């Protein structure tokens, strides 16, 4: 018999804070136990999406440690209901390394806001969507437009 772990909204919100804080501390693999092994991340930045808990850590490593080694987040709002948690964040960092999609660095400080919607199952992060973000500002600061 398989037992299902039920988590509270507050526990789910704490996991999202742990992920953001872990990324800012450059501890990208510190939250693997909080992410489901069959995790799926949906994002326009990665054409084939992210699959598996390690893929999330690796994506953040490549986009934050490699591309923006001095980058950090500010959580502006964190909401939860049922198995869903939504974060409103901003990110600021110097673009000194290439992005996974091949965008070359320009040495500029980039700052943009975005939202994430996450779904939890069995007490672990199961899905993550990068929802609305200020794509014009981001693309401009990355030197793409």
Automatic annotation (TrEMBL):
Gene3D superfamilies per the UniProt record, alphabetical: 3.10.450.50
Pfam families membership: SnoaL
Tree of life domain: Bacteria
Transmembrane segments: none
GO biological process: polyketide metabolic process
Protein name: Predicted ester cyclase
Source organism of the structure: Spirosoma endophyticum
């Amino acid at each position: 018999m398989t037992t299902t772990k039920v988590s509270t909204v507050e526990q789910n919100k704490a996991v999202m804070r742990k992920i953001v804080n872990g990324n800012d501390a450059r501890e990208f693999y510190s939250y693997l136990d909080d992410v489901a092994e069959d995790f799926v991340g949906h994002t326009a930045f990665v054409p084939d999406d992210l699959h598996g808990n390690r893929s999330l850590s690796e994506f953040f490593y490549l986009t934050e440690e490699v591309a923006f080694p001095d980058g950090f987040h500010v959580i502006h709002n964190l909401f939860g209901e049922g198995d869903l948690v939504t974060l409103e964040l901003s990110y600021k960092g110097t673009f000194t390394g290439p992005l996974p999609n091949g965008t070359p660095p320009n040495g500029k400080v980039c700052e943009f806001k975005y939202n994430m919607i996450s779904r939890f199952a069995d007490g672990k992060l199961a899905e993550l969507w990068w929802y609305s973000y200020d794509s014009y500002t981001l693309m401009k600061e990355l030197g793409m437009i």
